[in-house]
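Q: Here's a chain of 503 amino acids. Please give me its 3D structure as tokens.
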Amino acid sequence: MNKPIKKIAIILAVISLFPIIFFSINEYLSLNKNEKIIQDIYNKQLDAIIFSINQYSDDIVRSWIFKTEDIIRQNKDEKLLQNSLNKYLPITQSVKNIVLADTLLDALTAAKFSDLDSIRKIIKNNINLVRRFFIYKNQNYQKMESIDFGDDVLLLFVTNNDKICVFQLNKKDFVTKNLSGRIRSIASDKFDVGVFHSGETIYSTENFKIEKAQQSANFWLISRYKLAMSVKGGTLEEIIHSRVYTNIALIVALGLLMSIGVFFVYRNIKREMELAQIKSDFVSNVSHELRTPLALINMYAETLEMDRIKSEVKKKEYYSIISGETNRLSNIVNRILSFSKLEAGKRNFVFEKIDLNDSAKKIYETYLHHLQNKEFEFTFVSGGEVLISGDKEAISEVIVNLIDNASKYSNEIKKIILRTGVVNQFGFVEIEDSGIGISQDEQSKIFDKFYRAAKGLVHDTKGTGIGLALVKYIVDGHKGKIELESDTSKGSKFRILFPLEED
């Protein structure tokens, strides 16, 4: 009697201990590999966030340029023009002076009289650059040059009014007054961010020091100013080791429970393996999604940097590719961050009265050129004014995700239709493609987080598996509905319905 009991005890002990030993060793041996993968993902994510702050600063300056051009158009008289520029200075918060010059440098108009001789000299020294700027401007491409000017920076560019313009921008004011809000918003409770100059802290969140930075980059517009950031909660190495050791501890705990019976052992191991596989697939897919645009950006940027391309048309094409891949990379990172916030319950929707048709039309106009470059026939069918109550940014995210999916899963027939309208007291936006479609047995699963088709063309196309899950989270949060019609021989049609705004 004792022998069978001992055998059973030994068998149960082996069954219990073997998975513990196996998984513990596997976790330990794969530590370096997992660490490198996650480190690369975090670094690319930090790079993308730093890029977005730089892009935001560039957008601010371009908005000032557009306003300056409006002021020039509206004021033909020299004195009125100077007064209007002077009134505009406080609005910018950090521009100390705006100087205009004609192409011959005979006439200078300044909002405030300062060191105009120095500025005239700088413009004269960069006159060849200015001529190129006019060529770019005629091609609807705005270029500017940053020139160090003590505590300030001079932003040199040309306007649509055939004027040479210089913004005298105070570097410190630009960071603390114009960029600080954006930096705080991005930092949230996940990152520490700071702006530094020659070791001096210009601005930081929670007394962040540059010595603690995990990633840094120079500002595009502000010479010798560095933007640095790191993930909160310790170094990446500590976070990764903590995760691995936690997993090992959980495996040991599960191993002890396995001694109760083989059935419970099997069930728990299966569950953990499925979870591990989902995580592995997710990391693999995200790594691929991030690596592809980064490789293209690096290749084309390096080609342009080495001045191998002489044709301006070809250069413009390369710039367009870099811009498109940058937007694609930002979309991937933003999608992951949005999904993380929704999963943690930290994303709060701000409801307001919006025109769904107008939001869809703006997205159509934004994506039209990009999709046409990919040889897509992209059509917008307007349903007139469609007033709903919702979070404008979140609803735009839904539409963008569905358009991205439509382009990603299109095959030979590249055709996408974006529609809006009203049906049964619901406003709807509809995205229809002629792509590879979704099989009937997969349609009920595609909105699950991390779900990827097990086989077929859908599985062969790389993706993170969170796009449609993100769409479902947002639609559910707006008390909306999702309708799907799909055929593997005709394509897919997603219809998103939102309750109409009550009068």
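Q: Can you summarize the key feature?
A: DSSP finds 14 helices and 16 strands in the chain.
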